[in-house]
Amino acid sequence: MGPLPAHAARLPAARWALLYGNFVTGCGVMVAAGSLNDLVRSLQVSVAVAGQLIAIAAAVMCFGAPLLAGTPRATSPAR
Questions:
Q1: CA atoms within 13 A on the CB side of 20
Q2: What is the pLDDT of residues 36-45, one digit of tens each?
């Protein structure tokens, strides 16, 4: 495979913003899972209940992100 053409080597600013947003979201998800033991101790619940809390947060993010991403297009004036 040869080198990339000059126009393909640079990502547009919108793609960098999406890349950064995905990185931040992924880090946020991993922080919650990584701090499960601290969450269990501070809330005084079982590991199963704390795991369900993290699963619910992931489901909200899974369904909420596409909905919020479509909101500006739906609310923007017609062109």
A1: 7
A2: 899 899 999 9
